[in-house]
């Protein structure tokens, strides 16, 4: 056995299979399967914007109620259900103001949804800036552009703390005044103007200065959802037995620090709250070692494997 094989071996098990790397299928059907999560994410992101736009400009209704009014910080669904960004509400509270009851109810509803789905699901599946960041990253890889410098991804948590401190000092929800998410939403819904320069700035920064600089390192909203994401019930399950440690998932992940083979093998899943559940790691795994599953099912499967292992 070579040293490499010894490193990959698992006690009590046979040597891991030979490493294979992801290959993009030649057929359209195969490509669509690889792109399935990307297509679903873009559909949801665009659909949210279209619903806002259609309701505002064309008065779209359902059951005689406006479909979706407001913005991504505070909105109302079907004229009845309030939806609020919990982080925006937290900033208001930090500014020593008490939010309206509708805002509190809306924040509770949104928070409950993301406690189930995983907080940073918002970043990959709902946030419009994600489309800008993904485009910049795609061009970086295509053109071989390297980052000018690197800062720790944990920097966003300092940005989160700073946002709350500034909200307290200034007496306003600080991030909401400069949020590129809010700016991009306004520009797309109400018409492109000077505010789009901020979104262009993020694109240029991500493209030329630092890979996934804004979303991956500085966005305080992403940090907030990372904290919430620790309790997520929908996780990326990991089958250690079939994994050959090819590393394709780590290369593809927009948050590579969340993928630890050792931790994933121990718990049977990716536990980090910074995981966006984007599905990029799943589709490039040549051994199908990664998949979405409920936390309870993953724990149950892990318990069964442990029990089987102890009795065999």
Protein architecture, described:
This protein has helices at 3-8, 28-34, 36-58, 86-94, 101-117, 121-125, 129-143, 155-170, 174-178, 180-190, 196-209, 213-218, 220-228, 248-252, 261-267, 280-283, 295-311, and strands at 61-62, 65-66, 68-70, 74-77, 81-84, 234-238, 269-270, 290-294. The chain is mainly alpha-helical and 312 residues long. The protein has 2 domains: 37-228, no CATH class; 234-312, 2-Layer Sandwich (Alpha-Beta Plaits), CATH 3.30.70. The strands form 3 sheets. Strands 3-4-5 form a 3-stranded antiparallel sheet.
Structural class: mainly alpha
Largest sheet: 3 strands, antiparallel
Element pattern in H and E: HHHEEEEEHHHHHHHHHHEHHEHEH
Number of structural units classed as domains: 2
Count all strands and give the number: 8
Ends distance: 25 Å
Summarize this structure as a short list of keywords or feature phrases.
312 residues; Alpha-Beta Plaits; 3-stranded antiparallel β-sheet; 17 helices; disordered N terminus
Short description:
The protein is mainly α.
List the helices and strands and how they pair.
Elements: H1 3-8, H2 28-34, H3 36-58, E1 61-62, E2 65-66, E3 68-70, E4 74-77, E5 81-84, H4 86-94, H5 101-117, H6 121-125, H7 129-143, H8 155-170, H9 174-178, H10 180-190, H11 196-209, H12 213-218, H13 220-228, E6 234-238, H14 248-252, H15 261-267, E7 269-270, H16 280-283, E8 290-294, H17 295-311
Antiparallel strand pairs: 1-2, 3-4, 4-5, 6-7, 6-8
Helix pairs in contact: 2-3, 3-10, 4-8, 7-11, 8-13, 10-11
